[in-house]
Amino acid sequence: DTGVSQNPRHKITKRGQNVTFRCDPISEHNRLYWYRQTLGQGPEFLTYFQNEAQLEKSRLLSDRFSAERPKGSFSTLEIQRTEQGDSAMYLCASSLGSTVNTETFFGQGTRLTVV
Amino acid sequence: GQNIDQPTEMTATEGAIVQINCTYQTSGFNGLFWYQQHAGEAPTFLSYNVLDGLEEKGRFSSFLSRSKGYSYLLLKELQMKDSASYLCAPEAGNTPLVFGKGTRLSVIA
C-alpha cells in the first residue's frame, strides 16, 4: 500500500454523462499528479498541482477535463460529456516536489469505461 | 521535450537473466527512474540512477549512461511474479515524470 488512495476504483458511465474521481495523496506530499493510461501504454501525464496551485496541464487535457485541489490535500478530476475515447485508467500520484530525485507514488487508479 | 524508446514486449524463461533497454532524449536530464507495473495495478518504484554505471539491488540492477542517453534494467534469476510491464522514466528538471510506453515482460516456465 503506497498510501495514495483513489476512488472509485471502477466507473462505468454512459456517453455524455459527467464523472468525477477523487484522489487522496500521501499526507505530507505537496505535489499531486494525474495520469491517464490505456492498455499497452505507459502512463500519460495530464496535469499536476503543487499544493493548491495547478502548475501544468498537458495538451491531452481537453476543455472537458477539469482538476482541482482546493485545500492542497485531496484532488478531484472531472470529465464532462464523456466520450468513448475517455475510457482508460486514471492514475493519481504524489511526491515531495521540492527537489529532484523524488520518488513518485501511485494510487491504484480509477478505471473508467464509457459505454 | 522527451523521446523515450523501449521494446514493447519481451519473453524470458524462469531462472534466466533478462535486460530491458531504454533510450531517451531528454532536455534538462537529471536522472532516470524504472517502475514495475503488474497488470491492473499501480506502478511501483524499482530504481533511480543519476550517475553513470550500474546500481545493484538484489535481483534487479539498473544501468545508466548519461552521454549515450541509455539505460537498462537487468533482472536476474527470473521468477514468474516478475511478469509485468517495466516503465522507463527519465527525469527532467523538477517536472512531472514522463514515461515510456513500457516493456511487457512475460516469464515462462
Residue runs with pLDDT of under 50 for 5 or more positions of chain B = none
Q: Which two chains touch over the largest interface?
A: A-B, 24 and 25 residues
Count of extended strands of chain B = 10
Order of helices and strands of chain A: EEEEEEEEEEE
**Residues in helix, % of chain A:** under 10%
Mean pLDDT of chain A: 92
Report how far the terminal alpha carbons of chain A are from each other: 31 Å
Assign an overall shape of chain A. globular
What class, by secondary structure content of chain A?
mainly beta
Strand order of the largest sheet of chain B: 1-3-8-7-6
Secondary-structure element string of chain B: EEEEEEEEEE
Report the biggest beta sheet of chain B as strand number plus sense, adding barrel if it closes. Answer: 5 strands, antiparallel
The radius of gyration computed from the alpha-carbon positions of chain B, rounded to a whole number of angstroms, is: 13 Å
Radius of gyration of chain A: 13 Å
Secondary structure topology:
The complex is a heterodimer of chains A (about 120) and B (about 110).
Chain A: E1 5-7, E2 10-13, E3 19-24, E4 31-37, E5 44-50, E6 53-57, E7 65-68, E8 75-79, E9 88-95, E10 105-106, E11 110-114
Parallel strand pairs in A: 2-11
Antiparallel strand pairs in A: 1-3, 3-8, 4-5, 4-9, 5-6, 7-8, 9-10, 9-11
Chain B: E1 2-5, E2 9-13, E3 18-26, E4 29-37, E5 44-49, E6 53-57, E7 60-65, E8 70-75, E9 84-92, E10 103-108
Parallel strand pairs in B: 2-10
Antiparallel strand pairs in B: 1-3, 3-8, 4-5, 4-9, 6-7, 7-8, 9-10
